Amino acid sequence: MAPRAYWKGTLKLSLVACPVLLYPASTSVAKTRFHMINKETGNRLKQQMVDAETGDIVEADQKARGYELRKGKYVEIEPEELESVQIESNHTIDIESFVPRDEIDKRYLNHPYYIAPDGKAGADAFAVIRDAMKDQDRVALARIVLTNREHVMAIEPLGKGLLGTTLRYPYELRDEADYFADIKTPKITKDMVELAGHILDSKAAHFDPSKFKDDYEDALKALVRRKAAGKPIEAPEPEERPSNVVSLMDALKQSLKGRSAAKKRSHSTARRQPSRRRAARKAHRSTARARKAG
Known about the structure:
It is a single chain. The protein is an alpha+beta fold. It contains 6 helices and 11 strands. Among the domains are: 7-25 and 85-172, Beta Barrel (Ku70, Chain: A, Domain 2), CATH 2.40.290.10; 185-200 and 250-294, no CATH class. It is 33% helix and 26% strand. The longest helix is centred in the last third of the chain and has 46 residues, at 248-293.
């Protein structure tokens, strides 16, 4: 059974349009989640909305949305009134421009979505838009309304479909100068930079998400299983922080030395493997000859 679409609408490039479906590309279903419970009964707790002034419990049919005009003064907005805010991007992903991929500041990337054609009718138009972007190696910028908010979305080819990533607006980002302005500019020797470069080279790899391991999630699940089995949970001993002060140059040299030693051990193990296989084959031949002679 196909997953349920999060959004349905039209992908539009000038006069070329096709119906599309939008699916969230990320999920947190596998994450371990806890519920609030009553320690005495073990029953799950539920939250209630309470009037901030009177303390009275507010039922679901009495809840509404309000915008604060000034302290304590709100204007109520009805759901029907929100629906009246109709703009074209409510049901259309209208591509406005195409930009080079490397010009997109990664800080603006927000939530990823898969975009697929909705039925056979628009499959050709969808393929044309997708393949044109592949040929140009550019990312489309479009507008879309999700959860009553208009978003700018970056769209790029991904396999047979498209990947759409909502982008943050400039007002949603904090200025890095507020955090980096006080960082000093120390004098670093060329030797230190070269040593650090060697360490980087020794750790060079390719991006492979399959190697990502959520150690905390694994430990959390193990804790739950242990507690459910009635086994005691013991707090780990706090790790002692190293007290010896090592100079930056010494730390760089030791790091590089450690990587080199590990690399040598790896090569040594690899060399021993063929030797073991040869020894095993030799022993097998000797046994076979002995059996034949007998």
